[in-house]
Amino acid sequence: MSTEPDRRLIKLGETDETVADVAEDIRGRDVRDSSGNDIGKIGELLIDADERKVRFLEVESGGFLGMGKDTTLIPVDAITSITEDDVRIGPSRDQVAGAPSYDPALVAEPDHYAATVSYYGFMPFWSVGYRYPDYPHYA
């Protein structure tokens, strides 16, 4: 009898878990595209319920004093480099702006983030043959 994997996503900050090495916790870092354009800041890391691996960055942009802020999900697969100050991603700022809308109430729903993975052109983490990126140690 085979059981379906639990594909729910959980915000790391809403669990008792932490990043193993505090220096590798990228929450609060700026996100920039490959041209150096500002995308926003990482507000939260979303982990899967089964393997407890980071699957998405919850990136916040715009707004003032927490008002009018936009939030988007970016697959961890999009990361190209990480420094002490920022996280670089492959997709452009325009591509991120056109991503499927983010609904925090639906973050645990596989169909909600499956559309985001598909939009960015990455293999879903629940697919056979998926290889987890070398997060957070990139070339």
Kindly describe this structure.
The protein is α+β, with helices and mostly antiparallel strands and 139 residues long. The protein is built from two helices and seven strands, in the order E-E-E-E-E-E-E-H-H. The protein has helices at 93-97, 110-120; strands at residues 9-11, 30-32, 38-48, 54-61, 70-75, 79-82, 86-89. Strands 1, 2, 3, 4, 5, 6 and 7 form a seven-stranded mixed β-sheet that branches. The termini are far apart. The mean pLDDT is 85.
Secondary-structure map:
Layout: E1 9-11, E2 30-32, E3 38-48, E4 54-61, E5 70-75, E6 79-82, E7 86-89, H1 93-97, H2 110-120
Parallel strand pairs: 2-7
Antiparallel strand pairs: 1-3, 2-3, 3-4, 4-5, 6-7
